[in-house]
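To whoever picks this up:

The nightly regression suite flagged Calcium uniporter regulatory subunit MCUb as changed. Nothing in the input moved, so I suspect the structure step. Input below, exactly as stored in the fixture:
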Amino acid sequence: MMLLRGARTPRPRWLPTLGPGARVHPRPRTPSPQVLCMQLCGNLKYYQSHLYSTVVPPNEVTVNYKHGLPLITLTLPSRKERCQFVVKPMSSTVGSFLQDLQNEDKGVKTAAIFTADGSEISASTLMDILLMNDFKLVINKITYDVQCPKKEKLSMEHATEMDSVKSLVHRLFMALHLEEFQKKREHHLLETIDHLKGQLQPLEQIKAGIEARSEAKTSGLLWTGLALLSVQGGALAWLTWWVYSWDIMEPVTYFITFANSMVFFAYFIITRQDYTYSAVKRRQFLHFFHKKSKKEHFDVVQYNKLKEDLAKATESLKQVRHSLCLRMQGEEINEKN
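Regenerated output under the current build:
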């Protein structure tokens, strides 16, 4: 018989012998340990999935890569369904992704993307740059923490090659779609100009009426000034030749001229402008114009902004049409050659 290593041979146990007159006392029993038994009620598969499942929670936003393209999976707020969005890192931006999200689910009223420290990311940021770090997606004031899978760091040569490929793709895209893009931009600028002109038309009518009344009031003020100067000259001539002599009126005219010089100097101190008749007329016209605008509730700031937007849109339209003409001339030259 072979003994296992480490096993002990059983020792014989002798029973105690009883002497004459000895009593047998029962040996006290050691209490056995109590075991608490728990019974699971219901389906056992539910408890197993609850304890050991790795299924993604239904409200979590995940980022995965499939065939080299990132997939952003999230739950739509209104339909409560999981939806995947395929992202093109080189061409898609944060603004286009949020717009696709709102187009997919009309229940998305507000959507924005923030960095991990709470700074908002602009809509023009490329998704390739966004997916480099973790970010926060806010949908209808509900914040979702998104963890992006880390990519392997590219070598310097590989990174330079990728930048060259991106630049080449961008140039090819611009060359193939430049004319289409310019025509769309021209159409968009024409619509913008028509819209701005429609907004400016009622304002132009109100402005024309205010300008006419302000011009009339300014002209009346100038004629009033001429009449006062004529009265002053006539009064000085009457006092000089009919009432008093020149010896008496000479110091009076001197002080009148000095007083006028003081008035002109005070005008310069207050307005920081030279006292010229054209400047005085323009200043009085603007004074009457703004006063009338407030009475008729004419928004000067809005009018100026619309005029600036119209000028910018018109200038952009000229540039687009000029580039289209150059492109057409170049195509004609190539056809002739």
